[in-house]
Amino acid sequence: MKSLNQTIALQFHLLGLSEDPDLQPVLFGLFLSVYLVTILGNLLIILAVSCDPHLHTPMYFFLSSLSFTDICISSTSVPKILVNIQTQDQSITYAACLSQIACVLAFAFVENFLLAVMAFDRYVAICHPLRYPVIMNPRHCTLFVVSSLSLSTVDSLLHTLMALRLSFDTALDIPHFFCELAQILKLSCSETLVDTILIHISASLFAGVPLCGIIFLYYCIVSSVLKMPSQVEKA
Questions:
Q1: Rounded to the nearest 5°, which phi and psi values hold at 56?
Q2: Which parts of the chain are beta strand (E)?
Q3: pLDDT tens for residues 136-170?
Q4: Of 26-30, 117-121, 191-195, which one has max mean pLDDT?
Q5: pLDDT digits (tens, 9 = 90+) for 1-55
């Protein structure tokens, strides 16, 4: 327990950004601008979908969920970057670092699943239009989103719990402007084989499978559209 408390209290240093004093205002303005555009743009999408009854469809429900996820991903790292630039302090505690990693992983995997679900939505709408109201009813749509969030959260927590057992030497410099699990493993002096295998398995399941699903579904959509008789052939 004492070793665990000491590990959590460690201070890492994020060295991904230039320490040149002349560049700090530029970097601060750049990150702040991108962050505000991301937040405002996604909030407008959510507001538009919420206020317009014509947009209360599965596709726009998933789009607003994707916008909310994008806001969450940006908010897990960019505010800390802005604070570090403003205070000229690049340090971050291990506990905060693990929290950042967990949130980024969870929301990134949710985003992958949502993109796959949106592809499935278009597949059902185009290839099976008569069954669309039954398959993509509100209950199923909510279940898709909740399942994506639950699976992603469990996976990110698993990575976080595995990282809690790691030990570190004095070299605690991360060559990025946010915490990354792969860099944490490189800095550790503990055995990280299990963690590395877990990362590859998670990447295959939570990134590779959705990507393959998206490619397959859009292939089916394109094939179905190409098989449709054109207006000239009908005439």
A1: -85, 65
A2: 11-14, 91-93, 173-174
A3: 999 999 999 999 999 999 999 998 888 888 887 76
A4: 117-121
A5: 444 444 555 777 787 666 677 788 888 899 999 999 999 999 999 999 999 889 8
b/e 83-118 (16+ beta carbons within 10 angstroms → b) = ebbeeeebebebeebbebbbbbbbbbbbbbbbbbbb
Tokens of 102: 């967990």
Give the integer Cα–Cα distance in Å for 65 and 53.
16
Partnered with residue 93 across adjacent β-strands are 11
Q: What are phi and psi of 50, to 5 degrees?
A: -70, -35
Give residue for tokens 């506990």: 95
Structure tokens, 115: 């993109």
Euclidean distance between CA atoms 49 and 62, whole angstroms: 10
